[in-house]
Amino acid sequence: MNKDLKNCTLDELVEIVKQAGQKKYLAKYIFTFIHKENVVDISQITTLSKAFRQNLIDKGYYISSLSVSDALTDPDGTIKYAFELPGGERIESVLLFDEQRKTLCVSTQTGCQMNCVFCATAKVKYRGNLSAAQIVDQVNVIEKEKGRIGNVVFMGMGEPFENYDNVIKAVRILNHSAGKNIGIRHLTISTCGIVPAIRKFIDEDIQPRLAISLNAANDKLRTKIMPINKKYSIKELMDAVNDYNHRTKQRVTFEYILIKGLNDSIQCAGELARLVKPIKCNINLIEYNEHQRCKFQASSRASIKQFKAVLEEAGLETTIRFKMGRKIKAACGQLGAKYSDFTIQEP
Asked: Which of 21, 132, 253, 277 is deepest in the core (most CB within 10 A)?
């Protein structure tokens, strides 16, 4: 049994409480104090008797807490937080503001193994998976400072579906009404296309939003920029997404990073439209963020708007995600770059 109480679902806390010979309703008090009150010390859970609190401590139970090592604010208001892990590794989270809404982009791994050639984070050496507690605590720590966070997107460092169990556990914890109570449709998992994990996800009894980082509509181009396509072809990916549509009745978001002269032509837009038209979906077009380890350049905003027009003409709901947080290396694909062995090209 994990000794970190923050890493436990409510059901797991119930088992701990029962094994201690206590009433199971006390588990909800523990869960609420940790995930709603942001308590990080068992002795502060004052609804428990002093004897029970001491019993938990004596048995080696504790509440973990991430430490903020740095926080940078972009002129556009975006804030990037760096957290230091016990082994000295760092992860980063990004807080985005949209009028009154706060969205937090959280990391699920240290570094990334997917090796997408356009992504600066892919150049950061992979060190391992984060625990559910470490994923959840990015929300806890930042919410304690900045107030209620309404949306959480699993789009930071790492591939969430390569850390499947911990990510799903984090979703359960964040969604639970006794804790953060973040609505399930306000939680989004983004994947580069781990097909077996998508199929496993279909059968979950909890369904946060699903986003697919696509970036190309044919195998030749997608394999060139996303090595995962060698393992799971576009057909395999689309088959899994179709099954997701039909069995969950939920739409999927396709994320498409626009790179100048590579995947941003009118022809590419038409190909993308034909590929995803049969699927219940929406599309996010994302401005590319340049870095020194890759020669790719960002598409012009005029090209992006033309690309969007083609998709909308085909009847596809399309949104452009313009760069935010670029000055502090917090934009899409930049997380972890400050701590890697290379520098990002300044705008």
From this structure: 132
